[in-house]
Amino acid sequence: MVASLLEVVIGVGGFIRPLLRYIGPITVAPTISLIGLSLFKLPVIYGKINPPIALASAVLVIIFALYLGKVHIPIPSCSKEKVRTSLPVFQLLPILLALLVMWVVSAILTVAGVFPNDPTNAMFYSRTDAKNEIIRSTPWLQFVYPGQFGPPSFSLAAMIGFVGAVVSSVVESVGDYFAVSRACEVPLPPDHAISRGILMEGLGSVLSGAVGSAHATTSYSGNIAMVTLTKTASRSVMLVAGLFLVLVSLIGKAGAVFASLPPPILGGLTLVLLGLLGSLGLSSLKFVDLSSNRNLLIIGIAFMCGLSIPAFMEEHGDMLSTGVDSVDQVVGVVLGTPMLLGGLTALILDNTVSGTKEERGLLKWKQIENVDTGEAKTCSGVTTEETYSFPCFSRRSLPRWITALPFLPPVTKDPPANINEV
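The structure assignment produced for this chain is given below.
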């Protein structure tokens, strides 16, 4: 909770803004790609329990998203007009459909006795009833509240270690914000939107610690892959999803049912999502001159640092032990976080090695002026103000001192009526 207050301060004070001036596509590409590539062991960990089920789950997602993505399914309509409504269901719900199909298949194979009934056998966890005890022991209704597991304790060494994790989270989240803007085909996030995102993640982490959660709060990079895959990025959809999660958290058995999902199915789904996340990061390089040896070398070094140094720390981290727990924790977090290492390496090299803005991709990356300069910015016909302002009220009705806060949209002049004038 104490370490998370640092993230709150960074968001409230807008202290991330000076760093944003130096971030370009060469920095974002390895930061985002390494989030997916560094987790390559997850599909193996989940999938090794039952490789055929994991592979079938991945294949189903591929079929639904790539081969059946443009197939429209007729949807029943209550309208009096005789208008046939159809939706690209396979494109909108490839992950959910694959999950449900494989869950049913696993249930059938469980009833048929195909999977072993011996808990000591790894394939036992392919059964849909392997975690029935979790469902039985979980109450129907449960409410979380601060201090439910007792009063919080404090450790200076642990706090310092978590500060390193907070810094890693901030860097990763900034990369996530840029990546999801590309996935949604909207303008790049302005400084105030990034500061607000960091602020909300910090507040969420403080709340997570207060209620005794096992982890802090950060942007979930896998959702960027979901947005890219389903082409769904509506605020309304995200609000409904958030309310659904709150509801599931209150109905204990509902959450327990989701927790009973067989790991091999999850392994197949993560195989596709993490791969898509890695390629999404690489898509930022379309703005960069890839015929430049300078750029190729920087990108290559950033990827290798992000992959090899954490691997070294995992195998030989004790070689860098200083004997001071707090220092060792910070070193372990910083050198063991691929996206932080790759992103910082690219950031430093890209801004210290000479190169033109066109060569670095900065002209195309930020070719439309930021909203903070007082001009509207468009991308696919959508302005920055429409994307990153508050939908509930007009910021022009607020006192100017409130909108001057670094994490709130500033008051700007009205955008031109004709979008072509921008």
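Interim note for the steering committee: The longest strand covers residues 73-75. Residues 294 and 354 are 9 Å apart (CA to CA).
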